[in-house]
Design goal:
This protein is 49% helix and 0% strand. It is built from five helices and no strands. The chain is globular. The chain starts with 12 loop residues before the first helix and ends with a helix.
Length: 95
């Protein structure tokens, strides 16, 4: 899932993700009882952007179905980590 959000300065990103996962899990399970065992992966990635990049990120998110025909989620995430020069260890990135 890709999400573009504007956070208030008092909003803790980790708390926002925790609440988003909690609320959406409850909603999903209420929509279809066959999804009773649904759960999110434990981790997440978060990138900050400037206001001038909002339209570019909206286009990027809108193109995800087409984009994932060519690249897996894992490939895409590694690319973002490299593009933004974020150090990571492969063994800690995936569940």
């Amino acid at each position: 899932m890709h999400l573009l959000a504007s956070l208030a300065r008092t909003c803790e990103p980790a708390q926002m993700v925790k609440e988003l996962k909690r609320a959406s899990t409850l909603w999903i399970k209420q929509q279809d009882k066959t999804l009773w065992d649904f759960s999110w992966q434990s981790g997440y990635g978060m990138f900050s952007i400037g206001f001038s990049q909002i339209d570019q990120v909206k286009r990027y998110i809108a193109e995800q179905p087409r984009h994932h025909n060519n690249h897996s989620f894992q490939e895409e995430f590694r690319l973002l980590l490299r593009r933004y020069q974020m150090a990571y260890e492969e063994r800690y990135v995936w569940d």
